[in-house]
UniProtKB/TrEMBL annotation:
Coiled coil: none annotated. Belongs to the enoyl-CoA hydratase/isomerase family. This is Acyl dehydratase. InterPro entries: HotDog_dom_sf, MaoC-like_dom.
Length: 314
């Protein structure tokens, strides 16, 4: 993760509401279609003198954030997690997410937020985080690069407490069909054949799963709410939040003591309602590169992987 010396800090008075961020994204997308942009939604003011696209050299920051313990309890119950006195890692992601999204609607951000595909997350949960701690959040974007299907970017969020970083996360997003001027897309890699592991669980996700998650963590992205709102954005049906899937996986896989790191990669969406077959297994001593615990989710009765990931103690 890069340093902060080259980035201009923008202090936000509070954590922004995601509804306002999505509204700003709609407005920005509409404005980009009227004029003054490069093909694919990149703004000209996000380019350097040679026409290459640049990420805004800014960091958005909220200095003081308190956890709503009622919200925490609702999250734990939604995920089937143990109600305990420390913050689950995906809950922390949810606290930082609006600050990270505010970076993506910055005037200089060159990619369209609406329609972004969530590819993966990598997280360092550096120590146990207590609900009563006063937290800070900062976020920025880095490493804009070609992808075989378009352009991808990392959005980094860091949560601090007592003057130290306690959580860091990198979310990787894809803008499909967007070409970066002067840069060539890599070849599409060969997709390995998915073989389902031994099932250890099964999740039956109701049609309102996305609305239930949004009701707790505030992510009211229309692609997760109803089939009607998802179809308006080009989806055939609404889909589960990627971080809901990560939260469900981590509820049974994350260590109960100390720090840990984890990652997840998304292979295909989970349409709602739907059923996900799930596997979590000890990977210590095996060939799996992920670490202590590996988890996988796939479509019931089919060889179609939805996600895979790992959890490793620090």
């Amino acid at each position: 993760m890069s340093g902060t010396a080259e980035r201009r800090c923008i202090d936000l008075p509070e954590v922004p509401a995601l509804g306002g961020i999505y509204a700003a994204a709609v407005k920005k997308t509409a404005a980009s279609r009227i004029g003054g942009v490069l093909p694919g939604g990149g703004r000209r003011r996000g380019a350097d003198d040679d026409g290459r696209w640049q990420l805004p050299a800014v960091e958005h920051r909220v200095r003081r954030l308190r956890v709503d313990t009622g919200r925490l309890t609702r999250y734990q119950r939604l995920m089937g997690d143990t109600v305990r006195e420390d913050l689950p890692s995906v809950f922390v992601h949810g606290l930082a997410f609006p600050v990270a999204m505010s970076v993506m609607v910055d005037d200089g951000f060159p990619l369209p937020l609406l329609g972004m595909v969530h590819l993966s997350n990598r997280v360092e949960h550096l120590r146990r985080i207590r609900p009563g701690e006063e937290l800070s959040v900062r976020a920025w974007a880095e490493d804009l690069r070609p992808h075989f299907a378009g352009a991808q970017v990392d959005v980094v969020a860091e949560v601090g407490a007592g003057g130290e970083a306690v959580w860091r996360g990198v979310s990787t997003y894809l803008a499909k069909g967007v070409d970066l001027p002067g840069r060539t897309r890599p070849e599409r890699p060969e997709k390995p054949v998915f073989t389902a592991p031994t099932r250890t669980g099964q999740w039956r996700l109701a049609a309102d799963t996305g609305r239930a998650y949004a009701g707790v963590l505030g992510d009211w992205n229309p692609i997760h709410l109803t089939s009607l709102s998802a179809r308006a954005l080009g989806m055939k049906r609404h889909i589960a939040h990627g971080m809901y899937l990560a939260g469900r996986a981590l509820a049974g896989a994350a260590p109960r003591e100390g720090g840990y790191e984890w990652g997840i990669e998304f292979a295909s969406p989970v349409f709602l309602p739907g059923t996900v077959d799930f596997s979590v297994a000890d990977a210590e001593g095996g060939a799996d590169p992920y670490g202590t615990v590996a988890f996988t989710g796939w479509r019931r009765g089919a060889s179609r992987e939805h996600f895979s990931g790992y959890v490793a103690p620090r």
